[in-house]
Automatic annotation (TrEMBL):
Reactions mediated catalytically: UDP-alpha-D-glucose + 2 NAD(+) + H2O = UDP-alpha-D-glucuronate + 2 NADH + 3 H(+)
TM region positions: none
Signal peptide start and end residues: none
Record protein name field: UDP-glucose 6-dehydrogenase
Highest rank taxon of the organism: Bacteria
Domain UDP-glucose/GDP-mannose dehydrogenase C-terminal as annotated: residue spans: 311-414
Gene3D superfamilies registered for this protein in UniProt: Cytochrome c1, transmembrane anchor, C-terminal, NAD(P)-binding Rossmann-like Domain
Keywords (A to Z) from UniProt: NAD, Oxidoreductase
InterPro entries from the UniProt entry: 6-PGluconate_DH-like_C_sf, NAD(P)-bd_dom_sf, UDP-Glc/GDP-Man, UDP-Glc/GDP-Man_DH_C, UDP-Glc/GDP-Man_DH_C_sf, UDP-Glc/GDP-Man_DH_dimer, UDP-Glc/GDP-Man_DH_N, UDPglc_DH_bac
Source organism of the structure: Paenibacillus wynnii
Amino acid sequence: MKLAVIGTGYVGLVSGVCFTLNGNHVICVDKDEEKINKLNRMESPIYEPGIEALIEVNLREGRLSFSSDLTDSVRRSDIIILAVGTPSLPNGEADLQYIEGAAAEVGRAMDGYKIIMTKSTVPVGTNEKIRKMIASQTTYPFDIVSAPEFLREGSAISDTLHPDRIVIGLDNPDLEPVMRKLHQGFTENVFVTDIRSAEMIKYASNAFLATKISFINEIANICEKVGADVTEVAQGMGMDRRIGSSFLQAGIGYGGSCFPKDTNALIQIAGNVDYEFKLLESVVEVNKGQRFMIISKLHESLGSLRGAVIGIWGLAFKPNTDDVREAPAREIVEALVAEGAIVKLFDPIAADNFRKQYDHPQLRWCSLPEEAAKDSDAVCLLTDWSLFRDIDLHKLAQSMRKQILIDGRNLYTKQQIEGTGLEYHSVGRPQMGGLSGYSQSVAGAV
Ligand SMILES: NC(=O)C1=CN([C@@H]2O[C@H](COP(=O)(O)OP(=O)(O)OC[C@H]3O[C@@H](n4cnc5c(N)ncnc54)[C@H](O)[C@@H]3O)[C@@H](O)[C@H]2O)C=CC1
Ligand SMILES: O=C(O)[C@H]1O[C@H](OP(=O)(O)OP(=O)(O)OC[C@H]2O[C@@H](n3ccc(=O)[nH]c3=O)[C@H](O)[C@@H]2O)[C@H](O)[C@@H](O)[C@@H]1O
């Protein structure tokens, strides 16, 4: 089959490249010519492990091409995949200007029957709007399919090639065999439903995962006060298959380009039909507060932060990506700057992207984690990059002015911390290398 994928962000690029692997010819289209030029030089505009190798081999073998000419690409394709951004408007609602713009352009370009498949995350009813928009631009016949995407940044290729399920929303049952063929070899788990339910499955899935994270973060906050260990609690809970062990990692809360925007959009979708989604509102609220736990812990250990030197390890919203959209690190660093701290920042991949969005005279940019830690009063780990796991914590303690390590992702084990001389604070676990939060509150009560 011949496909045109509109938008070369994570979803467009990764799904476009992966669709070549089951024998399709794919044109990835973007209006951003700089991105297309980069891609034609076999350079990926996104950091995603494995993507450049796949681009290279598929470009060479002629199954993949990149273009900024939407009209020509649409005309040369049978299936058009919409994968443009749907960011948040200031009120939290999804901004549909890019998807509507792309749909209208596709409509104008059509010169025969096409299947138009939406991969962007869009509010319930959007595919119907897209249908009307295209119909207003063309007299050629077409079908609409909703095929929401569930990949995660950092593991996007394996998530696409081996997904738990593929969701297909359609209203013309004749399309089912084509859709199954398109996804052939990825998984047998293809769930076919109506378009509105498919749109809702995407939001409900992201909202549920965000709920698991805020839930375990609240459990973590209580664990700290009662002397339990949230990592043990999560493990014990997760062994119940009805609960499941994934997405129960306590920390500084979720970030990224999707959970924050999609939870807010679902609250708005509900609000638009006069339904107050109270549970999800609380999930968002808990998440907003969780990152400031880092600042509270610094205050507990150091008192005022004016003039303090704080090392920051990790700026990306999660490891294996250079994406800093809605990264908790941003607000944490801004709060430290506002309190008068000097902040030494390190991230193996995302520092440039972070710096483009935020810079300040109190920030010092470091090219190694050890450099960010040297002579600092505390180090705060905000992204669980695996390279931090291998750092020599004994040497680290010796290089710091004060030996305080605040681990916002529970990366280290008790064994790694013991004997290092570090005062170690993590999330929802007893403090190591000093008085625990539990011991302090018990001591205070007697
Ligand atoms: N980033 C992720 O991991 C995931 C994202 N999604 C959803 O997929 C959608 C896309 O997200 P990202 O891949 O992060 O997108 P992105 O925002 O990084 O990239 C979108 C691209 O579309 C291009 N574009 C916009 N209008 C265009 C037009 N008319 N013609 C050609 N190109 C156009 C832009 O130039 C941009 O390069 C969003 O709805 C998002 O919620 C879904 C699952 C995972
Ligand atoms: O719609 C989307 O864009 C995507 O959003 C998420 O994917 P992604 O944002 O790439 O990353 P996740 O691995 O889900 O992590 C999101 C955030 O939650 C945090 N997280 C995740 C898991 C956990 O147990 N605890 C936790 O704090 C991560 O650190 C990160 O900040 C979903 O997992 C994907 O299924 C979905 O397709």
